Amino acid sequence: MTKSIALSLVLAASLGLAACSGGAENAANNAANAAENASNAADNAMNAALNAADNASNAASNVANAAGNAAANAM
Fold it and tell me: How high is the pLDDT of residue 25?
């Protein structure tokens, strides 16, 4: 009789701890964080590509301006 009561108490305590541990909630938060990190990485990659294109355009514009300035100064 006392073993069954003790076993019942251990079982109840185990279930209580399992319910309060938040394992499923932690897993959901981890998954949400991973998705957010992936989204941020994609945004960063897109911004880097746009910045690289802008830098290339600016460099080409600088070359054209330098050539124009050189031609104007030669006169």
Answer: 74
DSSP label of 21: S
Cα 62 to Cα 33: distance, rounded to the nearest angstrom? 42
d(CA 59, CA 50): 14
Contacts of 6 (CB under 8 A, 6+ apart): none
Which amino acid is it at 74? A
pLDDT along the chain (75 residues), means of 10: 66 62 74 89 93 97 95 88
pTM comes to: 0.56
Convert 23-41 to b/e letters by CB count within 10 Å (16 or more is b).
eeeeeeeeeeeeeeeeeee
